[in-house]
Amino acid sequence: RTQAGDTLYDVATRYLQGPDDWQLLQRINHVPAPKHLQPGTALKLPVVRLRKEKLTARIVAVQGSAQRWSGGAYAPLANNTTLAEGERVRTGANGFVTLELADGTHMSLPPDSQLELKTLRRTVLTGMLDRVFELTRGEVDSEVTHLKKRDARFQIRSPSVVAGVRGTRFRVNYDADGNAATRVEVLDGTVGVAGKQQLADATLVHADFGSVATSSRS
Question: Which of 56, 164, 171, 181 has the CB geometry, 3.0–4.6 Å to 155, for a possible disulfide?
Answer without folding.
Answer: 164
